Amino acid sequence: MKTIHLLFISVLSIHLSYTQDIKPNEVKNIMKKVADWQIMHINDAYSNDKPHHALHWTNAALYVGMAKWAEMADNDTYYNWLKGIGDQNNWQLHERKYHADDHAVGRMYAALYGKYNQKEMLEPTIEQFNYILHHPANTKLNWATPYHQDRWNWCDALFMSPPVWADLYSITGEQKYLDFMLDEYKATTEFLFDTEEHLYYRDERFKGKLDKGTKIFWGRGNGWVFAGLADILSNLKPETSEYSYFLDIYKKMADRLIELQTPEGHWAMSLLGKEFYPTPETSGSSFFIYGLAWGINRGILNGPKFKKAVQSGWKAMTGYVNEDGMLGYVQPIGAAPGNASANKTEVYGTGAFLSAGSEIYKMVGAN
């Protein structure tokens, strides 16, 4: 009995250390620092030689995290910044009607609708998605087929578009949005999900390929998926079959991800090849931290192994923020494992970091 008691005390002390080492005010301070730096540098060029369009998917991923930070901030400065972007662009989605990347900004519109309840914020998105419902793309998911990206045939797409459909379902209560999203999500998962590794191939071109003897599962690509799953689940009722479907994928990925985390706290750009890709990559890693912390905060992921993974990951991410507030080691735009460095950043990396911080802040006991 004494041994059991001592073991309980030991486990409890480990559990507490995972959260007490991170202070809520420190989380909030570094989130503000990173958010402020990014807003000051929003018109910089990053992966390319010119700034991204305000509605481009890169910025849309930033806005997702910035909206989460805006909810935490002490004033409406960040909400006003986001609202200004919506106003300047008449609350439109980006250029391509079917392409998931160009739907992603709708996530920011839904978040702002949740605060302001102004119907003009969502009307263009609803109109476009209703068109898609009545004129669905019938293209194949194979990469070389015509108009293949009119459907979600690459794993990044599962972050860009499905959560917007889930948002519309949650806001309007109309089942049609959820039904369409679920059918398309299932098609993508059947096409790209590896049932042995519980990870997603980036797209068809990587299925069956090896990199130094390992299957190629892109870190950020799976980060897109995992963060998107958390956001989809947030819009669904736990007692529904749809929730069970997404929860099953989420749990399988969560279990695999903590097995693949590096001793330094980040995840490799090629998830199964960390010895070949030792350089940190903060955008994918931040998305994993966000998704894991989200599950901890909702009682879905239990046990010290998850808290340890999240705390280790968050400490690693904050260590890659420079004194000015720039998050380094963000892999530039790509579709496969590549390169990152301390002086490389991107707006979606900031968005992922802010998303992670929003859940870390809750996890460490902030009110």
UniProtKB/TrEMBL annotation:
GO terms, biological process: carbohydrate metabolic process
Record carries keyword Hydrolase: yes
DNA-binding among keywords: no
Transmembrane intervals: none
InterPro entries: 6-hairpin_glycosidase_sf, 6hp_glycosidase-like_sf, Glyco_hydro_88, PolySaccharide_Degr_Enz
Classification via Pfam families: Glyco_hydro_88
GO MF annotation, one: hydrolase activity
Keywords: Hydrolase
Protein name per Swiss-Prot or TrEMBL: Rhamnogalacturonyl hydrolase YesR
